[in-house]
Amino acid sequence: MIQVYTGNGKGKTTAAFGLAIRSLGAGKKVYIAQFAKGRRCSELIALNRFDGIRIELFGGKAFIKKRPTKGDIASARAGLEKVKRIIAGGNCDLIILDEINIALKLGLLPVKEVLAVIKKAPGTMEIVLTGRYAPKKIIEAADLVSEIKEIKHYYHKGTKARRGIEF
Question: Which residues touch 125 (CB under 8 Å, ≥6 apart)?
């Protein structure tokens, strides 16, 4: 099954990581690839305390705010190659591609290639793609799509990202 968590609201990664905790609680194996992120956030520290989970980052120190560099593209490609191997290995129950939609929007990876990879997953494997700007073709391929919509956000009042809340 393919799930997509998208939209401009806060909580897409949090929702996916909640699913990871649920899966771990059921004795399942989880793999998380974070695209366009390279900073170890508090949720990663917490999840690493569990057995049955592997987390890898395929991005720079923060979200990309300028044109992607060759290094950004190489990191994203390495992440997709790793996901291919994890899927082919077949010994993982849940794969989360965190912020992959951002990577697609920024042109770090072609949508067609990502679709080809995730469609090879066996029916027993759950694949979750997160991030704003989910491409239409990703949404069409998904079995479940949740849009998280911002109604109000304290960021607009000048509140900075806080450790343990935003990262």
Answer: 87, 90, 92, 93, 94, 95
